[in-house]
Amino acid sequence: MAAFQNMPQAWRRLIFLIPVLIITLILASGLYTGSLPKPRMPKVVFDDSHGPFHSDCQANHTPPNLDSLPDIIRALWQPLILPITAPRFVTLDGTEKLLPPQNELVHTKPMGKRICILDVDTRDLAGEGSIFYSEGVPPWDKLGSPSAGFLSHYLYAQIHGYSYKFIRAPQYADRAPHWSKVIFTKELLKQYDIVVMMDYDAMFPSPEVPLEWMLNYWKIDRDVIVAMAEDPAGEPNFDDSEKHKVNINSGFIIAQAGEKSQRLFKDWAECPSEVRYKGCAKWAQTLFHEQAAFSTHVRYDFLDGYSIETHPQYIRMLPCQEANGIPEVSGSGCVGHLVRHYWGRKGLTNREFGHNVMAALTPLLVQAAYKEPGHVEDLRSKVLKGAEVLDKPPAR
């Protein structure tokens, strides 16, 4: 708390003003028509030198431009962001995650716009609850599940200063629309160092955690071409090869740019054409499409005949417990400590998005309204008689 109190008074006032501005804009614009979701306080643990507001993230900042929504979002979240090199983090269910030793960390500084959060979708998304609603902005109480997921991705990108792209993908005559995520991830890797492709139902339950921290935690160094989560270990989530190993899940893809990446993603995108992989044509239209193609073919034969078994440094399988699933399907072993994937309860993306927003608003509102002087008159030490209130009126 001392770090926050030592901030310049003008900067502190600006931080406290931001939630009020956002809530006022929401109410005035008609985006909010129902009741607010139940707030959820972020469970973040730091070194003893860190209070609930993080001095690491407050140094050398100038007041934001209040005409810029990205600036407002960054200012709102700034006191909560987990430092990239923070030794530990406690998830919402109380699980402690520890970084490797500091001298082994891959990232120590923010990558900013060199990271792109990518959404790819072929749907029209023009209905009343959709982000491209033809009649205006979708009302909160009618916001569709896909739109809630997409908005959470945009929010996460703005919190950390990343780039964000939404590709309204074309239809492909020879394959299911799911394949577009592979094709456009490859293309965006020509523009960015790291591309994070997310299905709409994949979300960050703790948006204060930067991607760079997760890359450090998962030890995703520059050798790693692509990282994806494992699926739950049960039918039908096994590949179609003789190895019969658990599938990867392509709803959350971390891809790093480079010549090897372009080669791997090209082979993956061409898999249904059987340019390299005999028998892959079936995955053009068959469940699980691009996911099954990668799991059955690509990971066992990529680049110069490499396999994930002989060259594991290039393809990283992320634990299902950390990067897949949600608490409601914990029986699968996948609870989504760092990345949640709502394939089991797609309708809950709205709840997650609400939590994403309120996780920032709640502590700042509490701090501004009840911890700072000026709003609370504490009369508990007084012993009064009759209708007496005070011997002198409250200070203004």
Automatic annotation (TrEMBL):
InterPro entries: Glyco_trans_34, Nucl-diP-sugar_transferase, Nucleotide-diphossugar_trans. Pfam families: Nucleotid_trans. The keyword Acetylation does not apply. Keywords: Glycosyltransferase, Transferase. Residues 179-308 form the Nucleotide-diphospho-sugar transferase domain. It comes from the Eukaryota. Belongs to the glycosyltransferase 34 family. Belongs to the glycosyltransferase 77 family. This is Nucleotide-diphospho-sugar transferase domain-containing protein. It comes from Podospora pseudocomata. The lineage of its organism: Eukaryota, Fungi, Dikarya, Ascomycota, Pezizomycotina.
